[in-house]
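Exercise 3.2. Students should predict the tertiary structure of the chain below and write it as structure tokens, then compare their answer with the key that follows.

Predict this chain's 3D structure.
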Amino acid sequence: MQFEVPDTILAIDPTSRGFAFAVLEAPAFLVDWGERIIPAKTGGLLRKVDDLLTHHQPAVLVVEDVAAKGCRRRKRAREEINRMEQLALARGVRVERASRLAVVDIFAPGKSKYEAALRLAVTFPVLGEHLPRKRKAWMTEDARMNIFDALGFAAALMKRGGEQSPTSPRLRNEIYPRLMVEGDGDTVI
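Answer key:
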């Protein structure tokens, strides 16, 4: 029996301290996640991204869509995302974009970014212990939320399906629905 080699998705979310990442294999297997801390303007960011591209050999790199309505990225982050896209394309890796608002709309329609992260933690239980507490309005965002942002980009691409998704129709129609989790009357992934 011949098995399909799962496609790998690498999602990266740049931060002020470096970047957070998540690696998914189709249909929805979380392979790796984490945060890389790189001092700003040292040039180390692209080296670390290149290391991830070499190690995981993804079929797709997913980054935030900085052209989307509601994107609040500053100039430096936009430039970093552009350089990551150029690096991936030079290595023959397809690049996809996902807006932060689209991720929230997919996983927690009409709710908050924290609710979307909570749904992702239910879908990927290994990350449940890494989910930070819900923040108050006066608190800064916990750095661990960036991992959930990156995971949301990758999972949104998987859920989106169609021509933009690297998953095969067999995986999307037969295996992926088995991973659905019910919660609060809404379907998660």
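Discussion points: The beta strands are 8-14, 18-25, 29-37, 60-64, 94-98, 181-183, 186-188. DSSP finds six helices and seven strands in the chain.
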